[in-house]
Specification:
Layout: E1 7-16, E2 19-29, E3 34-38, H1 45-52, E4 60-65, E5 68-69, H2 74-80, E6 81-84, H3 96-106, H4 111-124, H5 140-151, E7 158-162, H6 170-185, E8 189-193, H7 197-203, E9 206-211, E10 214-219, H8 221-228, E11 231-237, H9 243-250, E12 258-260, E13 265-270, H10 273-283, E14 290-296, H11 300-308
Parallel strand pairs: 3-8, 3-9, 6-7, 7-8
Antiparallel strand pairs: 1-2, 1-4, 4-5, 9-10, 11-13, 11-14, 12-13
Helix pairs in contact: 3-4, 3-5, 8-11
Domain ABC transporter: 7-237
Keywords: Antibiotic resistance, ATP-binding, Cell membrane, Membrane, Nucleotide-binding, Translocase, Transport
Organism: Nocardioides euryhalodurans
Length: 323
């Protein structure tokens, strides 16, 4: 088995006239893992994906997909990858089954392979009962699942997902997450751009954050959380009248505490799990009943705020720049 990365970006640059959309982006994605590509809207995520999937040519730099150079071997790159964009690209006038057959034929697959893959994908994405319905009758979640199924008809080892769950309700989003986890367990490599930080936290092994076309952070979700600020120790008392006493007791171990009356909680900076054990011993036998005691790490939204200066939900809708 090859140890080379499944996806590599090497100093990718893209200019649109005087506008620098991407400015020296580099990263590598090991086989069978998930990379989350995060950043404010307009940061260059979609343009980066378009260069890596041969939809637009880099101004400079290059990329490799499954070992194939996007500039020298574009056809091999396209045979080695699937792409699900921000909007479903299935044909509304065809049925779910016909869409899969159409794309399988375009890939040059034989009829037996197309039939086997079509049946398997319809079942995997819970679309068997809707296989003979035209796409215009599908819900948004069904269209997104079919769009992903179509991108997998040729069993590509690499899959690019550009905000694949945009517009889905929470239930459909979670269902799609499970499908993506199954793909990774089967060995598929994913590059995922998303506006949902929870999605990256749930799925990504590594995260690259880009802003204004450049990489500003790279690491695992836990590494990025740790880098954005210290964890907090949170003590939640059972009775509101114990809140003041709990704060006084916690001050014996930690000089800086914050009391939040509405949630009956006291928080303090923490270094790690050892602080939880130390504070649990402090409260043991104190007569103060606790509902919860634990360590709360910064969220990916905190990371986003720390790195870019604003929260993800404050970004305006992204305008995709096309070549």
């Amino acid at each position: 088995m090859s140890t080379n990365p499944a996806i590599e970006a090497d100093q990718l640059v893209k200019h649109f006239g005087e506008t620098v959309a991407v400015d020296g982006v580099s990263f590598a994605v090991p086989r069978g893992t998930v990379l989350g590509l995060l950043g404010p809207n307009g940061a260059g995520k979609t343009t980066t994906v378009r260069m890596m999937t041969t939809l637009t040519t880099p101004t400079s730099g290059t990329a490799r997909v499954a070992g194939h150079d996007v500039l020298r071997e574009p056809e091999a790159v396209r045979r080695s990858m699937g792409l699900t964009g921000q909007a479903a690209t299935v044909d509304e006038l065809l049925t779910g089954k016909e869409n899969l057959w159409l794309v399988g034929s375009l890939y040059g697959l034989d009829r037996v392979t197309i039939q086997r893959q079509t049946d398997d994908l319809l079942e995997r994405f819970s679309l068997t009962d809707a296989a003979d319905r035209t796409i215009k009758t599908y819900s948004g979640g069904m269209r997104r699942r079919l769009d992903l199924a179509v991108s997998l008809i040729a069993t590509p080892p690499v899959l690019f997902l550009d905000e694949p769950t945009t517009g889905l309700d929470p239930r459909s989003r979670v269902e799609l997450w499970e499908v993506l986890r199954d793909l990774v367990r089967d060995g598929t490599t994913l590059l995922l751009t998303t506006q949902y930080l929870e999605e990256a936290d749930q799925l990504a092994d590594d995260i690259v954050v880009i802003d204004r076309g450049t990489v500003i952070a790279h690491g695992t979700p836990l590494e990025l959380k740790d880098a954005s600020g210290r964890a907090a120790l949170v003590v939640t008392v059972s009775r509101p009248e114990d809140l003041s006493a709990a704060a006084d007791l916690l001050r014996r171990a930690v000089p800086e505490v914050h009391v939040d009356e509405p949630t009956r909680s006291v928080t303090a900076p923490a270094e790690g799990l050892s602080d939880v054990t130390r504070v649990a011993t402090l409260f043991d036998g104190s007569g103060i009943d606790l509902d919860d005691l634990g360590l709360q790490r910064p969220s990916l939204d905190d990371v986003f705020l720390h790195l870019t200066g604003h929260r993800a939900e404050d970004t305006a809708p992204e305008e995709e720049i096309s070549a």
